Amino acid sequence: MTRGRMITLEGVDGAGKSTHLEWLAEQLQALGHTVVVTREPGGTALGEALRELLLNQAMHAETEALLMFAARREHVAQVIEPALLRGAWVLCDRFSDASFAYQGAARGVEAGKLDILEHWVHPHIRPDLTLLFDLGAAKAKARLEGVRELDKFERQDTAFFEAVRQGYRARVNADPGRFLVIDGSLSIDQIRAQLTLIIAAFNSDR
Fold it and tell me: pTM (2 decimals)?
């Protein structure tokens, strides 16, 4: 059986990535793929329990990173790797790039420590394509105002948002072949027009 493929969606809070998740799943299903839609932190019962702690409980930055990767290990073992092995396509809202952007660039955890965790937790799992929804920090933060009760990351100041954004840009620079950057300031229709072309090309290159 042909191994499935993994697409991740990344971006600072408010950039709009989650708006397109289910829509993307529908596009992939229309192309004949079995699609597993999941998220981080989360994706498993343990991951969802850890998500509540991670998004709402204050903690040391390194504790945060360790819990993120603990949730990720369970996620890889229970959901992601089995799905890929049975030929499904995995569509994941955030993965390890988020840890380098949030816990690394914004919270100050050394990149070398995150590298060790990444290689330990999922040495054989790497997204085939990462869609980075990029939006200026001030605009991203403004989008979140008054929408709902915000988690601890969403409540951070503009400088934090900008640090996350730069952390993502560093990941793009380090692995440009994996990333496609989407302008998060465009309209939903404009973004989906781009995504339609991206998915068509990605689907045909196999």
Answer: 0.96
